[in-house]
């Protein structure tokens, strides 16, 4: 059995709010009494993509657990890469984490300067090759942008473009067991390409669906930060949502 913490949308800026909420989440994960096999962070790490924000995020996200991260639409590839990964370059930031019995492949769905998502050809080729290399091992595929509409109009308007290209890759590889995403700031479960699509809650705030609020950008600032804990056992992923209070 493997347990994966899924953290998303910490949106570090110069306000205490983002730092305190992220610190509470990471303290919780660091102090868990049982085994945690990895921490997955699905983007929107820095609110404005600045070097200073990434330097704060790097300290906050430092963990005793293996950690894998991908950018979101608020991130800047070059600064993300430089500060969080110690690398140069501004191409897509695609990351793989190989655990004993499970591979996590995080794709860069960000489009520089744009809020919507897209998997570039380079990223789709990379994902296809990671899946081919892991043909005997289950793979969880993650990215920032959900590949389907979730019922929140302003989020759905900036979702993943051309999801059929991702679907074609996943359909070629039955060992791709689930898709993870962030971006929506709400814990949500749906399906895509015949797999579960699991959306992590946002650490910074919680988005509401139209039945819950009348505003155009309905966001609850009072709910506590939340995370998802994915348990992988016997080929099946089960998700537990936890508020961090
Ligand atoms: Fe976000």
TrEMBL record:
Listed Gene3D superfamilies: 3.60.21.10
Keywords assigned: Hydrolase, Iron, Metal-binding
Annotated signal sequence range: none
SUPFAM superfamilies from the UniProt entry: Metallo-dependent phosphatases
One Pfam family named in its UniProt record: Metallophos
Start and end residues of each Calcineurin-like phosphoesterase domain: 3-187
GO molecular function, one term: cyclic-nucleotide phosphodiesterase activity
InterPro entries: Calcineurin-like_PHP, CNP_phosphodiesterase-III, GpdQ/CpdA-like, Metallo-depent_PP-like
Similarity-based family: Belongs to the cyclic nucleotide phosphodiesterase class-III family.
The name this protein goes by in its record: 3',5'-cyclic adenosine monophosphate phosphodiesterase CpdA
Source species: Streptosporangium carneum
């Amino acid at each position: 059995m493997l347990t994966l913490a899924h953290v998303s949308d910490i949106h570090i800026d110069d306000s205490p709010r983002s730092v305190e909420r992220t610190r509470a989440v990471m303290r919780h994960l660091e102090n868990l009494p049982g085994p945690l096999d990895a921490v997955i962070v699905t983007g929107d790490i820095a609110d404005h993509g600045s070097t200073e924000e990434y330097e704060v995020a790097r300290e906050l996200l430092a963990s005793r657990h293996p950690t894998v991260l991908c950018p979101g639409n608020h991130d800047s590839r070059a600064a993300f890469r430089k500060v969080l990964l110690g690398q140069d370059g501004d191409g897509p930031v695609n990351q793989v984490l190989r655990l004993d019995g499970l591979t996590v492949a995080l794709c860069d769905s960000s489009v520089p300067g744009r809020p919507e998502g897209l998997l570039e050809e380079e990223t789709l080729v990379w994902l296809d090759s990671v899946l081919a290399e892991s043909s005997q091992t289950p793979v969880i595929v993650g990215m920032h942008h959900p590949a389907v509409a979730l019922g929140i109009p302003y989020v759905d308007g900036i979702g993943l473009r051309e999801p059929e290209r991702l679907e074609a890759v996943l359909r070629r590889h039955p060992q791709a067991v689930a898709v993870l995403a962030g971006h929506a700031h709400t814990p949500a479960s749906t399906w895509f390409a015949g797999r579960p699509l699991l959306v992590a809650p946002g650490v910074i705030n919680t988005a509401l669906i139209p039945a819950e609020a009348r505003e155009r950008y309905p966001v609850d600032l009072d709910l506590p930060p939340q995370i998802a804990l994915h348990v992988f056992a016997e080929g099946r992923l089960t998700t537990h949502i936890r508020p961090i209070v």
